Amino acid sequence: MRKSPSPPIILATIDGDPGASSWIPPVTDEEWRRWKKYYECAVKVLFDIFDTAGLIGKITWFLNEVDVRWTHNFPYLLDAILERGDTVGLHSHFGGIFGRPIVSTFKDVLAVCKAGKEELEAYLGGRKIKLHRSGCFRQTATIYEVLKTLGFNVVSDVNPGRKTLDAEGHILDNSTIPLSAVPWRHDVSNWLDYRSTEGWFLHIPVTAEGIDAMTKLTERVIKHNIHIVC
């Protein structure tokens, strides 16, 4: 008798970015209140969706500390994430959006990653952050060299089956990676070798969907009859 195929393993992750690429501080008090409300509501919706799905303590939040400043602006949301038992990683954008110039040298990439890592780790009482995802799935040997230097050993950037442009116009060709690829190990320069079983990094491929908190998420809330108070 033919065995039924095993169900796919899905690792749910969230990128804690600003609500829109046009949001560039400083903003007016009214803009800040509106943006903060939007952010709080989006996270509450996510919490309830995950609760309904039984995913408490099973989500990885890649937090963009440099641009959002979670530890300063949303410590209560970060506390709630930690209380749920979820995992915290770092999400770093290297320019082109959020009003920052593009950075690509080892020195500049190091400064961005180090700043976010140190802020989060200080808030976590010295607990080390080991997981990282680059903004816009950016993949370069320089970035991975920086991440290795800072002690990150789990990354999640490769988007199987897709070929896109990064913020600098460089081609990110992940089209050779099959959707069936499972996490693989690699070093600084062979991140597309999904058959590799050795290396410093564990690479968790990602299939991403951009979600607007007030449209698609709201539709899901209605579908699952979840009550949200924002």
Helix-strand string = EHEHHHEHEHEEEEEH
Radius of gyration: 18 Å
Give the proportion of residues in helices: 25-40%
Strand order of the largest sheet: 1-2-3-4-5-9-8
Let me know the largest β-sheet: 7 strands, mixed
CATH architecture: Alpha-Beta Barrel
Write down the domain tally. 1
Separate helix tally:
7
Q: Kindly state the mean pLDDT as a whole number?
A: 84
Q: What top-tier CATH class fits best? A: Alpha Beta
- Tell me what portion of residues adopts beta-strand conformation: 5-15%
Distance between the termini: 52 Å
Q: Could you name the CATH homologous superfamily?
A: Uncharacterised protein PF12979, DUF3863
Identify the overall geometry.
globular
Annotation, overall tally of beta strands: 9
Q: How does the helix and strand content classify structurally?
A: alpha/beta
Q: What would your notes on this structure say?
A:
This protein has 230 residues and is α/β, with parallel strands linked by helices. It has one domain: TIM Barrel. Helix content is 33%, strand content 14%. It contains 7 helices and 9 strands. The strands form 2 sheets. Strands 1-2-3-4-5-9-8 form a 7-stranded mixed sheet. Strands 6-7 form a two-stranded antiparallel sheet. Helix 1 packs parallel to helix 7 and helix 5 packs across helix 6. It is globular and about 45 Å long.
